[in-house]
Known about the structure:
Layout: H1 3-9, H2 11-18, E1 30-32, E2 35-37, E3 41-42, E4 53-54, H3 64-90, H4 102-121
Amino acid sequence: MHDARIFRISSLGEACLSDTSYFQQANITEQIGDRQIHPYLIGDQAYSLRSYMIVKYRRRELTRERAYFNKMQSSKRMRIENTFGRIKGRFRILLKLTESKLENAVYATMASCILHNMCEQFKVSHIIQSPCQMVFDD
């Protein structure tokens, strides 16, 4: 299943689609210059431009400035994708999430992201694999 479809049927996707000001209502902002910037998502060509989603300009719409924007947007999106690849490499259980219940897959993903951030913060390059098998289908 493609990321765009998974997003649309997720609770976050449903919230964003039903209320386009979803992120603007969050009390999370970043001060950039004299502007308060709310969170947003970065999408590839499968997504359409929304108030909560930044996508690249199409080729026929490109100017020099828009080409630069596309380059910056693409580099950020690639960094995010690489991070998810590193998380999946570090926590191989994530490769088998389709075999578990959705609720358990969510918990495993959240735990893996938290542990990944801790590994990054404390410069842990590898994790010793346990010989026991984790089972999430209880």
